[in-house]
Here is the input.
Amino acid sequence: MSYVHVMAAFHQATTILADPISNPAPADPTGGAKGVNLLLSYAKWGALIACAISAVVSGGIMGVGSLSNRPDSVDKGKRALIWSLGGVLTCAIAIPLVNQVFGAAA
Here is the structure.
């Protein structure tokens, strides 16, 4: 392969790489289906309800454990309460974040 062929190939490659890349606008892959929004709302409320139930149950475990002199139950209840509140915090942050991302894509 001669120097001319190498330079011609290099010039062709740089010309192809220099072409602008198209940036299409975001499109809704569901075609505006309401089922996806319904599914996301069920998941959102289901997660919040599960966190609320676990917070109430963990409070009950702490109460029963302290009344029956079972310190291991109290510790399990405290850990469960912290994790349930962490779950609520995660849902509270994730919901607006997902709405912002989906809103920017629409």
